[in-house]
Amino acid sequence: QVQLVESGGGSVQAGGSLRLSCAASGITFSSYDMGWIRQPPGKEREFVSRIRGSGNTYYANSVKGRFAISRDNAKSTVTLQMNDLKPEDTAVYYCAGGVGESFDYWGQGTQVTVSS
Question: How far apart are alpha carbons 11 and 105 in whole angstroms?
Fold first, then answer.
């Protein structure tokens, strides 16, 4: 049974930082691409960041330079460090994993709220 469990969401003022973590189980973690996708209130889900099994990273233009994704294959975890947060970063953040271009597995989501 595959499980992706996020933690680390919360409320912060603009300019602040949060660190999201995702613990994976039931998959060969090192073989999976992992990513973060968010859903702002009233909007569709949008890509935030992805890290390949190789370690290559990708970011949405809106978060480039502010967010950093990393992974620990020994612990089967992926982390999203979010700095200089803006109100427009407010969303439910989902951890996701997959072996192809699409993500096959999703976490339950964690709320991030940034106040101005």
Answer: 26
pLDDT digits (tens, 9 = 90+) for 24-69: 999 999 999 999 999 999 999 999 999 999 999 999 999 999 999 9
CB pairs under 8 A, 24+ apart, for 108-112? 108/5, 108/6, 109/6, 109/39, 110/6, 110/7, 110/8, 110/9, 110/20, 111/9, 111/10, 112/9, 112/10, 112/12, 112/18, 112/20, 112/38, 112/82, 112/85
Phi, psi of 66 (to 5 degrees): -115, -35
Give the pairing of strands 46-51 and 33-39: antiparallel
How would you class 58 by CB atoms within 10 Å of its CB: exposed for 0-12, middle for 13-18, buried for 19 or more?
middle
Q: Is 66 exposed, middle or buried (0-12, 13-18, 19+ CB in 10 A)?
A: middle
Nearest to 33 by CA among 76, 97, 93, 105: 97
Each residue's pLDDT tens digit, 13-26: 999 999 999 999 99
